[in-house]
Write a structure and sequence with these properties.
Helix content is 27%, strand content 24%. The protein has 894 residues and is of the alpha/beta class. It folds into four domains: 33-48 and 56-393, Alpha-Beta Barrel (TIM Barrel); 411-474 and 631-652 and 666-688 and 699-734, Rossmann fold, CATH 3.40.50.1700; 483-621, Galactose-binding domain-like (Jelly Rolls, Sandwich); 779-893, Immunoglobulins (Immunoglobulin-like), CATH 2.60.40. Strands 17, 18, 19, 20, 22, 24, 25 and 27 form an eight-stranded antiparallel sheet that branches. Strand 17 and strand 18 (497-500) form a beta hairpin. It is globular.
């Protein structure tokens, strides 16, 4: 009996202990108590974290839990959860791991991932799921709106706010709580391949567009990440090229938009640029991240690197000896989150934490900023979302209609000779639609796949019968006079079997000496070893290669064959030295004639050496190429001849790391335009792209020109609305179009030159100026007025004017206000945009418009870099573009 009592007593005690342990386990820590002040929650959670848990809060990657959930037992900052869409840029596609399918399916996956981090990790810290949403979420089922540069071309902040609100709905309902957008870089050099992602060349226009876009997300609890801090384009319009701008230039042009969205729109994150500023990588610039951003501007959010940039100091900038040192430099300079493209890279960066070489205060500050954001978003209390809502809002009909409206309002009418536009259905029996982009439906960089894309052909077909359309695909976008030799015409022997390609032997010297360091089969000779070497066992700037095998004749006849690439090569065919270019000087194309018999195989040997790095190399020929594009142009001409009017749709190739040295239409599109125009049929050219295009070679031969940008998934209907007059175009250029790329960089708000701005053989004037755009109606400006003729330096003034629609149809006008400081202590721009309004006027209608100029609008940085309003006269200019000034007056500041 006593033993039974002892057993019962023991069980009772065990039960009490278990109960106590269970109660203890259920007891909330202070950081899990929503009523506590945010700072206390952050401090409590931070105090409970291990060093490894802190590191993982500073590490963001694309991915999910499909491989091994245990890898994330210490948590993670956030995931970029993949979907099927792969329309975006190369970097975006590279980070697209797997598929999450529809919005409903993706949301289910997102909830599952959050549940793991909230319920199955030690501290239960939720993720911040992130994604790109430059002009629509880059995922299946999301609406693809016009590209960012097109949104800027609307000069309509209300419309941009409506677009941002729609994107916010589609983003947040999926559980995504951070977007790596928008791009606030100033596009002063239109050769840059990422101009399409920006809001143009002007700091004021960029600021207004950014404020309209960002405020919608931040107000609804989605963190925005304006980028790339601070200037992502350098000399020659080259992406991520180093910049050496003065602080004055940064403050006047490149900082204003960033500063405004942090201080006024509440942007809670920022992404650094890949390049260096004044010798320091932006990702590790203490002056930029700590002194300017966090101390001077009071930024309370968190700073993230661009993808893979934290290790860029040692890989590309050569300012750190390894990834650990690079991590230390970045974190101590003010970087809070390392954005990497691969989970497996984490040991390279964790090493700096593990070995204790990073200041702990810098780590704790970074983690505190991240935790603060997660608490602010309410993720600890509400980490999950409703898949039904995601399915409802993604691709919603109202969003599709908004995509059409914004497309139409973004289009810029550049030329309209003989009033060729709008097209009148009653006068058109047949219309020719010519060009690759007629049916391509391209959406631009950082785009999802879109929903029910309406291309230009579909848009026109929706207005007139398909029987009335003569379609010709025309020449490809990048048609050339030669092409890379296809792998099917190259062969070699591998393990006794004949295979496509050539045998490549790579040597760790520049003389092809000794045994090869690497031997492999290269399917095609088409390489771009611009950042790294051909193989990990070779130096990127000290190697040589010998390719051998067979080349097969494509047809019987003489063809040009040769090399496009870095100098330092020889080409042998059939034992004959065809090209001897064994020197280092340039990048060029050398072609020689060789007579081929169709199907006959000839010995081929190519030798190449590289002693400086940055190599590109291609084996090319002109087989079948010339005949092909000549036939394509003939087909375009035939379609035009059978029609009453020809619409030629031409486009450009650009994008991230796709800068353009030449701004003309690529390939043989100019030849096609001129051939079609030569038929004598009225010809309209529609341009698809996100940056400036030179067109002096053909613009005087055509009647109409429309800049359609990348108009989004409903862009075909939007363009048709403009072509046929349902919408009166009122888009205005947010960038300057040069006459020739030799004028670049060219922008409207330059400072006085001190002498002249012309060339011996060209002027400094643009082809189309900033703010330019035509209409199907006309407008008259009158009655410039000031609320006060003179103001004090601390006062504002209201500027008024009247605008009248003097034409016969309803239309929009974009009224632009510019100022010029007539006399200042330091040189000031010849013209600065300080206000704009887009208004709709019926035929004959007149409206009075007003603008308010504040002391901040009139301020400048004096010689001591102090922001002041200097007394004196300011020229006030109101017009239809930066060149087309209609009204001007003088405002005196006392």
């Amino acid at each position: 009996m006593k033993n039974l009592k002892r057993i019962l007593k023991g069980l009772l005690i065990c039960g009490l202990i278990l109960s106590a342990l269970t109660a203890s386990a259920k007891k909330k820590h202070p950081y899990q108590t929503p009523k506590l002040p945010l700072e206390e929650r952050v401090e409590d959670l931070l105090s409970r974290m291990t060093l490894e848990e802190k590191f993982w809060q500073m590490f963001m990657i694309p991915g999910d839990l499909s491989d091994d959930m245990s890898k994330y037992k210490n948590g993670c900052f956030g995931f970029q959860v993949a979907s099927k869409g792969k329309q975006g840029n190369a970097a975006e596609q590279m980070m697209d791991y797997g598929s999450s399918g529809t919005a409903f399916e993706m949301t289910q996956k997102m909830n599952k991932i959050q549940r793991f981090f909230v319920e199955d990790t030690r501290l239960g810290i939720p993720l911040i799921p992130f994604n790109e949403a430059l002009h629509g979420l880059t995922r299946d089922g999301a609406t693809a709106f016009p590209q960012a540069i097109a949104l800027a071309a609307t000069w309509d902040t209300t419309l941009v706010g409506d677009v941002a609100r729609a994107i916010t709905r589609e983003t947040k309902t999926r559980g995504i709580r951070q977007i790596l957008s928008p791009v606030l870089n100033i596009a002063r050099d239109v050769r840059w391949g990422r101009v399409e992602e920006t809001y143009g060349e002007d700091p004021y226009l960029t600021t207004q567009m950014a404020m309209a876009f960002i405020s919608q997300f931040e107000n609804q609890g989605v963190i925005t990440t304006p980028k790339h801090f601070v200037a992502n384009v350098g000399a020659g319009g080259r992406d991520s090229y180093p910049i050496s701008f003065s602080e004055r230039l940064l403050e006047e042009i490149y900082f204003p938009a960033f500063k405004s969205v942090f201080q006024k729109a509440g942007a809670r994150s920022v992404m650094t640029a890949y390049n260096s500023v004044d010798g320091s990588p932006c990702t590790a610039s203490e002056w930029l991240l700590r002194d300017k951003l966090k101390k001077e501007w009071g930024f309370k959010g968190f700073v993230i690197s661009d993808a893979g940039a934290t290790g860029g100091s040692n890989v590309l900038h050569f300012t750190a000896k390894n990834n650990a040192e690079s991590t230390k430099e970045a974190v101590e300079a003010g970087l809070d989150v390392m954005f990497q493209t691969n989970y497996d890279h984490y040991p390279l960066f964790y090493k700096a934490f593990k070995e204790g070489i990073i200041n702990e205060e810098a780590i704790d500050e970074a983690v505190s900023r991240i935790l603060k954001a997660k608490f602010e978003l309410g993720l600890f209390e509400n980490p999950y979302v409703d898949p039904e809502k995601a399915a409802h809002w993604n691709g919603h009909q109202t969003h599709w209609e908004l995509a059409r409206k914004s497309a139409a309002k973004s289009m810029v009418l550049l030329q309209n000779n003989n009033q060729v536009l709008p097209l009148k259905k009653s006068n058109i029996n047949k219309i020719a639609l010519i060009g690759y982009d007629v049916k391509a439906g391209r959406l631009g960089g950082y785009s999802g796949p879109g929903n029910n894309i309406v291309n230009i052909y579909d848009g026109v077909k929706n207005v007139i019968s398909e029987d009335n359309i003569h379609y010709a695909s025309g020449v490809p976008l990048n048609s050339r006079t030669y092409q890379v030799v296809p792998s099917g015409f190259l062969s070699t022997v591998k393990n006794g079997d004949k295979v496509n390609g050539l045998t490549g032997e790579y040597f760790n010297n520049i003389k092809l000496e000794g045994e090869p360091q690497v031997s492999r089969n290269d399917k095609k000779i088409q390489f771009g070893w611009t950042l790294f070497s051909p193989h990990k066992d070779l130096a990127y700037d000290w190697y040589s290669v010998r390719w051998t095998g067979k080349i097969k004749g494509p047809e019987t006849g003489a063809f040009k064959v040769g090399i496009e690439g870095n100098d330092g090569y020889r080409l042998y065919i059939d034992g004959k030295l065809l090209i001897d270019n064994w020197k280092k000087r340039s990048y060029q194309t050398i072609l020689k004639d060789f007579y081929f018999e169709k199907g006959t195989e000839y010995d081929i040997k190519i030798e190449f050496f590289e002693s400086a790095g940055n190599a590109r190399f291609k084996l090319v020929w002109d087989a079948n190429v010339v005949q092909e594009w000549e036939q394509q142009i003939a087909g375009a001409v035939e379609a035009a001849q059978k029609s009453d009017v020809a619409v030629v749709v031409a486009g450009i190739h650009e994008g991230e790391f796709q800068d353009r040295a030449l701004l003309a239409l690529p390939g043989h599109q100019e030849d096609m335009i001129k051939a079609v125009a030569a038929t004598g049929k009225p010809t309209v050219v529609v341009l698809v792209g996100g940056s400036a295009i030179t067109m002096s070679n053909w613009m005087n031969q055509v009647d109409g020109i429309i800049m359609a940008w990348y108009p989004g998934e409903n862009g075909g209907n939007g363009l048709a609305d403009v072509l046929f007059g349902e919408e009166n175009p009122a888009g205005r250029l947010p960038i300057t179009f040069p006459v020739d790329e030799a004028q670049c960089p060219l922008y409207y708000n330059n400072k006085p030159t001190g002498r002249g701005d012309n060339y011996h053989n060209l002027t400094g004037q643009p082809l189309f100026p900033f703010g330019y755009g035509l209409s199907y109606t006309s407008f008259e400006y009158s009655d410039l007025g000031f609320s006060k003729n003179g103001i004090n330096t601390n006062e504002s003034v209201t500027i008024t004017c009247n605008v009248k629609n003097t034409g016969k149809v309803k239309g929009d006008e974009v009224i632009q206000l510019y100022i010029r400081d007539e006399l200042a202590s330091v040189s000031r721009p010849i013209k600065e945009l300080k206000g704009f309004k887009r208004v709709t006027l019926d035929a004959g209608q007149q409206k009075q418009l007003s603008f308010t100029l504040t002391p901040d609008d009139l301020s400048m940085l004096n010689i001591d870099m102090e922001r002041v309003v200097e007394p004196g006269d300011f020229r006030i200019m109101i017009g239809a573009s930066s060149k087309d000034i209609r009204l001007r007056g003088i405002l005196n500041v006392k």
